[in-house]
Amino acid sequence: MILHILNRPPSSSLTYREALASMGPEDRLLLIEDGVLGALPSQVRHFESVTGRLFALREDLAARGLDGHCDAAVQVVDVDGFVQLTEEADKTVSWS
Amino acid sequence: MILHILNRPPSSSLTYREALASMGPEDRLLLIEDGVLGALPSQVRHFESVTGRLFALREDLAARGLDGHCDAAVQVVDVDGFVQLTEEADKTVSWS
Amino acid sequence: MHDRDTQLGGDVLVILRHPPHGSSWLREGLDAALVAAAFGQAVSLLFMGDGVMALAGGQGQGPLGQKGTAPTLDMLAMYDIEALYLESGALSALGLNRDALQLPAQPLEAADIANLIAAHRLVLTF
Amino acid sequence: MHDRDTQLGGDVLVILRHPPHGSSWLREGLDAALVAAAFGQAVSLLFMGDGVMALAGGQGQGPLGQKGTAPTLDMLAMYDIEALYLESGALSALGLNRDALQLPAQPLEAADIANLIAAHRLVLTF
Amino acid sequence: MRYALLVQGPPYSRQAAHSALRFARALLARGHTLESVFFYHDGVYNAARLAAPPQDEPHLVDAWRALHDEHGTRLQVCIAAALRRGLLDEREASRHGKTGHSVEPPFELTGLGQLIDLGLGCDRLVTFSP
Amino acid sequence: MRYALLVQGPPYSRQAAHSALRFARALLARGHTLESVFFYHDGVYNAARLAAPPQDEPHLVDAWRALHDEHGTRLQVCIAAALRRGLLDEREASRHGKTGHSVEPPFELTGLGQLIDLGLGCDRLVTFSP
């Protein structure tokens, strides 16, 4: 399993397409920084192909007033959980 | 007439939508830097709403091997023409 | 203020296109607006694209405890910056509720945005 | 080389996502690839998204006479970097002709890209 | 006409500063005046006096300086953006108790109000962002 | 596990460096080792010794230094990326005939090969880009 990390929102950047195109069937995607906008119910459709493997960073959601506004399909992790995701992954790939 | 200047390509950035949404019926749009990728025949459809008012910078096309590969709907100007466009405009607005 | 609102005009229009925290664009754009206002100019703000996130309620601190831009928004009125606009399409695209915004801003359709830009002497995009 | 090509594997995969001239990403990514190769690692390159523009023929100089990255591409073979891949969808989205590319690179579909990434110990994205 | 430029992109990593220099030369060649280049956001890195690019690459700091020397264009750097990023002239370094400095004339640290003055006072302000 | 971080974002203008510092603290808190932070692209600006942010803002250069002091994490700066951008230690300044320097220990200018070594030698390399 590879952890992909995305820090751009699908509302303004198409980088998410490259991240998704690069993901294997077991890989996970973590949204951080401005990328957490992708976890909004209005935006999460862009990540349909990785349902169940989509994560968002709690601290970055909270900073933007979005903690609790995430779509239910998104698994929210704090930075400790972020580290844990990197432990469980064989490697990480960052998309910006 | 306002000159809008865009340096991001529609193939990776959605900034072009903000530029287009901000343009009045007489305004012009100049593609520079990586933005000139938008002048390719495969990409120019994104700029349909400003047909006849779409420009691209020759030097930036040439640097990317694209001089002569522009869509016919795009008016190619060199940097002297860029200055001239700013002379003719009331003001300029840059989008990045 | 009312006149300026209905006429959409002013000296300086600052367009804020980036969301809070991910970059310094929003803060540096707001700084430019505050300075222009402090210099006596009639300043308007347009929140556009992801920039409408600047208006979201309940914002917190950044990764290293930065206070973010939400406190700055509360200072706008003190600087007489009361002409606040937002791109209506961006708000709905992000699914934000207008009632939940930290500050009220007037929603604009695309045609109005072009008019707003035309009606200011100086337009700065951040 | 042939084995590595068919197996898509190697030590270091450098993913190049940005077009030439607009930023230093492409050049700095290529520098990382050259250094890895000089250190004896088996290096693969994947041109993805706008990064496929790096392969366009007939590139020229930058605004202040910078030589750009096209000359660097010619050095790849000297460093034994021969595993070159490109995102097939990006090439067609930009309407580039494969025959007009400066260097041949093997087109990959999405599933192959995931395999390519999985088959390298270190993946760097630029 | 009287022009001013706003440069918000860092040197080397983005084309913005290169584009701005090219535009500056072109507007001067057309007989216009370039009052000032204002550096804001990561554009303030253009003022880094110690920049040492390889010999076969353009030297942006020198290119800005040449613009000033030949045409009297002011090179104004937003002081708030600069201090955060480690760009201090001798005066600011001493004010902050630091030894050494990273910005020197003809670049001048100045307030953001100058940008507003330029934008409203010049005939054209053209922005180059990253 | 042995971690290394690659930081490519400048301080202040983008969140990347802030995110990296937060991640660094979290991995250390989980008992891992952080061998090195490698700064490349505009990330090299994190090493600017003269940075003077306002008192109510985080001081990134100091925060990196604290990481080194407390945990022995190396702070490695790509020398080629740094020189172009005006980030020189005393040795490079003298080698380029410049007076003054903009980088000081514990930040160390080093070759890009170190990044490859870290990427292949550590258990995890995590990249924070702008």
TrEMBL record, chains A, B:
Return the SUPFAM superfamilies for the record: DsrEFH-like
Entries under Gene3D superfamilies matching the protein? DsrEFH-like (3.40.1260.10)
**Taxonomic superkingdom:** Bacteria
A single Pfam family it belongs to is DsrH
Tell me which NCBIfam families the record gives: sulf_tusB_dsrH
What is the designated name of this protein?
Sulfurtransferase complex subunit TusB
The record lists the organism as Billgrantia campisalis
The taxonomic lineage of its organism, from the top, reads: Bacteria, Pseudomonadati, Pseudomonadota, Gammaproteobacteria, Oceanospirillales
Automatic annotation (TrEMBL), chains C, D:
Q: Which InterPro entries match?
A: DsrEFH-like, Sulphur_relay_DsrE/F-like, Sulphur_relay_TusC/DsrF
| Pfam families for the chain | DsrE (PF02635)
Q: Which Gene3D superfamilies match?
A: DsrEFH-like (3.40.1260.10)
Q: Tell me its family.
A: Belongs to the DsrF/TusC family.
Q: What is this protein called?
A: Sulfurtransferase complex subunit TusC
Q: Please spell out the taxonomic lineage of the organism that makes this protein.
A: Bacteria, Pseudomonadati, Pseudomonadota, Gammaproteobacteria, Oceanospirillales
Gene for this chain: tusC
UniProtKB/TrEMBL annotation, chains E, F:
Listed EC numbers? 2.8.1.-
Query: What UniProt keywords are attached to this protein's entry?
Result: Cytoplasm, Transferase
Residue runs in coiled coils:
none
**What GO molecular-function term can you cite, just one?**
transferase activity
Top-rank taxon: Bacteria
Q: Does the keyword Cytoplasm apply?
A: yes
Membrane-spanning residues where?
A: none
What is a single Pfam family found in this protein's UniProt entry? DsrE
Task: List localization entries.
Answer: Cytoplasm
Keyword check for DNA-binding, yes or no.
no
Q: Which InterPro entries match?
A: DsrEFH-like, Sulphur_relay_DsrE/F-like, Sulphur_relay_TusD/DsrE
EC class? transferase
Q: What is the first-listed, main subcellular location in coarse terms?
A: cytoplasm
Q: Which family does it belong to?
A: Belongs to the DsrE/TusD family.
* Protein's recorded name: Sulfurtransferase complex subunit TusD
Species annotation: Billgrantia campisalis
